[in-house]
Amino acid sequence: MSDIEIAQAATMKPILDLANDILGIPKESMDPYGHFKAKLSLEYIETLKDKPNGKLVLVTAMSPTPAGEGKTTTTVGLSDALNFIGKKTIAALREPSLGPVFGVKGGAAGGGHAQVVPMEDINLHFTGDFHAISAAHNLLSAMIDNHIHQGNELNIDPRLIQWKRVVDMNDRALRKITIGMGGVANGFVREDGYDIVVASEVMAILCLATSIEDLKARLGRIIVAYDQKPLAERKPIFARDLKADGAMAVLLKEAMKPNVVQTLENNIAMIHGGPFANIAHGCNSFQATNAALKLADYVVTEAGFGADLGAEKFVDIKCRLTGLVPQCAVIVATCKALKHHGGASAPEYKTEQVEMLKKGLCNLDRHINNIQENYGLPCVVSVNHFYHDTDAEISTVLDHLNKNKVPAVLAKHWKDGGKGAAQLAEMVVKMVDECNNPFKFVYPSEDDLLTKITKVATKIYGAEAVTATDGIKKKLARWSEEFPGMPVCIAKTQVSFSTDASKRGAPSGFKLDIREVRIANGAGFVVAVCGDLMTMPGLPKCPAAESIDITKEGKILGLF
Predict the structure, then answer these.
(1) From the candidates 102, 130, 276, 414, which is the catalytic residue?
(2) Given 13, 247, 386, 467, the catalytic residue
(3) Residues 264 and 287 in one domain
(4) How do residues 345-358 score in pLDDT, each as one tens digit?
(5) Helices (DSSP H) in 209-265: which residue ranges?
(6) Which residues lie below 8 Å from residue 326, measured CB to CB, with a gap of 6+?
(7) Active-site annotation holds for 552
(8) Distance from CA of residue 84 to its chain's centroid?
(9) 158-198 pLDDT, tens per residue?
(10) What is the pLDDT of residues 56-107, one digit of tens each?
(11) Is 414 among the residues known to form the active site?
(12) Does 265 map to a domain?
């Protein structure tokens, strides 16, 4: 059976009853969206503030490949497995973006017998959070152009507007556009562009905000443009200067509430927020993670892409800005991915290629070292099992990790659900129990921005140095003084440690070139765009949308 067929065959329980039975959440503290989805009220979360936190487990992975490693599948499978061995556990996940759903992935709710449901709803419009984020973001865009059209009291320089528009779809034609055409009534002609919603600063703000008040304050701090004064006197224009922060917060009022759903095994999952892990910080919301930690003994969460991107930003951005502390990490690896990083082509993924697999182990080894040495976290490697993996390949991986004294287990949650990852769950519990909490950041907050970028590039990516134009260096130096303490969010390709997507394995000695820097003042970090990364992806030659359909009975086909 396909992933969607397995999900559609699931026996779901009414979510209000399930959350009440398992976690004791009062039904009146949840807003139902149909029978199987609900939002958890912020007022209820506030009542939990004095409860002790459960244990936080981070699921990350080796560098992604076209085959997919199953990080979300492992997050769900491990959560089910911990419940299977008697530990009250919640999975805390990101919401899928429609861009990748209709682009490459075709869905992002897990796979096989380790999924969150209702799978179709989660992958599509869900509870409307992304639409709310898009509306709030584009309201601010409209208010910027309207302010200029109505007389420009704030003296905004149209050439220095920093705020693009957004849409939750991969559409390369919108990367650069011209607006205001058609005459005086349509405003001023200027260049603009679109990013995908998951790259919006509003998305990052929603996922880091700790309350409605904090949300509104962060929205007000967004830098949208600069005025027309000479460079030495130039001042930023904030969203609050346009009086947009209140209306934006109103649009996000419901979106701030975490979404509660269930796994195929009727365990609770919270799915909320979804910033990309290359062009944003790649973690689900603080609200969902925090609520889950108050309600469960264990919370299993994930960070997007590999441990060089999502996990680093989970540590240096999410944990730094919110005070969260993980107790251990799980690194997802597959034989396919190891063969890929050893030089294999797609046809070789499903055939035995032990030597290529051995060559690819360097990628996994660097991620393990980063987790243990640079983030200070104990880790276990979960080898996600596929039917075409051979005994020789599996033993090669496990023998290598055993030789290097790295805990590892072959996990079969895709096929067997929680039971198939029970050994992984036991390892995680043991690791958490033995953890002496050596957690650390890659750089101290007091470092200047260029130093922070350099430390991530050299310590995590294996780069030799960071290069940038004098203009970018001056901008980073100025922001270091004006906005001290901000973490950095490096935007680069996810498929390589370097900025060159063709460099597999564990490249080193390269230069990380900063192409552009942006300040996300509301979110509280600075973005360094490196390489040829696009903040508006395009669709592939054969997008997943071509295979997605609906029958006359309303049954959705093709999501996976």
Answers:
(1) 414
(2) 386
(3) yes
(4) 999 999 999 999 99
(5) 212-220, 245-251
(6) 56, 57, 58, 314, 315, 319, 377, 439
(7) no
(8) 27
(9) 999 999 999 999 999 999 999 999 999 999 899 999 999 99
(10) 999 999 999 988 899 999 999 999 999 999 999 999 999 999 999 999 866 6
(11) yes
(12) yes
Q: Is residue 544 part of a domain?
A: no
Hunting for tokens 């065959």 — which residue is that? 9
Same domain, 41 and 150: no
> Annotated catalytic residue: which of 13, 88, 105, 240?
105
Give the pLDDT confidence score for residue 532 in this predicted structure: 86
60, 65, 72, 73: which one is catalytic?
Answer: 73
Catalytic residue among 277, 303, 329, 411: 277
CB 97 within 8 A of CB 533: no
Which CATH number fits the domain that encloses residue 488?
3.10.410.10
Catalytic residue, from 55, 87, 94, 218: name it: 94
73 is catalytic: yes
Residue 282 sits in the same domain as residue 404:
yes
CB 349 within 8 A of CB 336: yes
Question: Residue 22's domain is classified under what CATH number?
Answer: 3.40.50.300
- Give the model's pLDDT for residue 50: 96
Instruction: Mark whether 126 is an active-site residue.
Output: no
Concatenating the DSSP letter of every residue in 81-122 gives: HHHHTT--EEEEEPPPPHHHHHTTSS--SEETTEEEESHHHH
Q: Is 127 a catalytic residue?
A: no
CATH number at residue 171: 3.30.1510.10
Decide if 159 is catalytic.
no
Total domain count for the chain?
Answer: 3
The one catalytic residue among 126, 163, 238, 305: 305
Q: Could you tell me the residue range of the domain that residue 499 belongs to?
A: 449-530
Amino acid 68: pLDDT: 87
Cβ atoms of 23 and 270 within 8 Å: the answer is no
Query: Does some domain include residue 474?
Result: yes
Is 87 tagged catalytic? no
Together in a domain, 193 and 159: yes
Domain boundary among 251, 270, 294: 251
Alpha helices in 413-496 (DSSP H): 413-416, 422-434, 449-455, 470-482
> How much is the pLDDT for 437?
66
Average pLDDT, the chain: 96
Clarify whether residues 299 and 167 are in a common domain: no
Mark whether 140 and 215 lie in a shared domain.
Answer: yes
| Residue at 517 is within a domain | yes
pTM here is: 0.96
358 is catalytic: no
Q: Are 200 and 165 contacting, i.e. CB atoms less than 8 angstroms apart?
A: no
Residues 105 and 163 in one domain: no
